[in-house]
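Appendix B. Chain record.
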Amino acid sequence: MKIFGLPANFFSIEVKVDRIVATEEELGKIFDASFKGITGNSLALASGFMPKAFAVLRESDENVANAISIGTAMNEMMLSTVANEKAIDERDLKALQFLLTHKHNWKPARPDNDANGDVTINVRNWLPDPEINDN
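Structure tokens predicted for this chain:
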């Protein structure tokens, strides 16, 4: 005896999902926020989206990922240009040191008598040694 029966069309439901795309205005907001160095959930919120909706939009529309990448690259290029001009043209030693250590992985020189920073810890057991009886 069958109490509940599913209609035949239940198993053949067609689901059509429209592709989600960002508008030109939304892409502009995303680019601007990315250009200013904003990342993660803050990028979504600054662009006018809730983080989950932004993740779906980013996954669906490759232009969103492109806007983020281009904004980040243009900002890095501008900042790098300013830092390089300051270091080279103005002969600013702090800017030069910053570029060498953070962009070119140079390590500052240490004096000869400076320790290398390694720390050795010796742990001793302060309990007396057990006595062994050979009986």
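Further analysis of this model is presented in Appendix C.
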